[in-house]
Amino acid sequence: MHSHYTGTQVDVKVLRPEQQGLRAVGHFNFFHAKTGPRGWALSLPWLGLAPA
After folding, report:
1. In Å, how far are 9, 23, 33, 36 from 15, measured between CA atoms?
2. What's the pTM?
3. Where are the domains of the chain?
């Protein structure tokens, strides 16, 4: 997918469940109330909503 965005800077972040105290994350679990706060906290600076 990155090859289609040639005019942008790609910054890949890998979220490892064990580093967040989780067994698994999955695609939709990233937004789940139990999992989400950990993932969203990492995403907020990228979205420009919190300091890095």
Report:
1. 19, 12, 17, 12
2. 0.47
3. 17-52
